[in-house]
Write a structure and sequence with these properties.
Layout (H helix, E strand, L loop, with lengths): L2 E6 L4 E4 L18 E2 L1 H10 L4 H8 E5 L6 E5 L12 E2 L2 E2 L7 H5 L2 E7 L6 E10 L9 E4 H7 L3 H20 L6 H12 L1 H11 L5 H12 L5 H17 L2
Antiparallel strand pairs: 1-9, 2-10, 3-5, 4-5, 6-7, 8-9
Amino acid sequence: MESHLTPLQPDQKFCFNCSPQVKCFNNCCQDLNQVLMPYDILRLKNHLKLTSSGFLEKYTITCIGSETGLPIISLKPAPGKEKLCPFVAPRGCLVYPARPSSCRAYPLARALSRSRESGLLTEHFALIKESHCKGFSKGQTWTVKHWIKSQDLELDFKINDLLMEIISLKNQFIAGELGTKEEYLFRLALYDIDQFRYHIQKKGVSVDSKIKAQKLHPIKTDDIDDIQLLIFAHQWVKKELFKH
């Protein structure tokens, strides 16, 4: 599918509608290339009432990113279908309330840049126009800010940015792929959150002393929810793998 990106400012307007009444409805789900962020997995496994291990085994495949050298989790196509999303049906998305952040954000793309001088992050947005999509011809008018709020993306962006920090550290301090142990710990903490909780509670996982004093007790006593645990997991990966 051909696509074109048009840069957008947060207050710029665009017209978009996606519904069963749009001629191309579900077409974008027929050409699956869906990378999952850690928060996507958390939300999907809870929506489907699966453990994180169960979800990963049933619905995903893992590869090592050629640029980052880090494990990448992607959705596995529907059985017998080369590129069809496993969660699409004629009536639409079967996991719509828990759909991945990139689906939630579409037709917006978001990127971050960091100032070398100040270290501050800046958001950049673009409108994705794909050749098959008919959703731009008519519908509601949105601004970038309005669309983000309507799709409940604020928390997605906040947690996804934590992974971007880790990728930045990886690029700075470790060339190539992670070692076997480091790859296991990365995948455990960020993608298999239920097993990460189990390891802390039952087996023990080495944790930096400052983090341990602040965070480890509520994890052991189950007084921390999955979202808080995932945020902690990003902090733990930074300390354990990259000493930051």
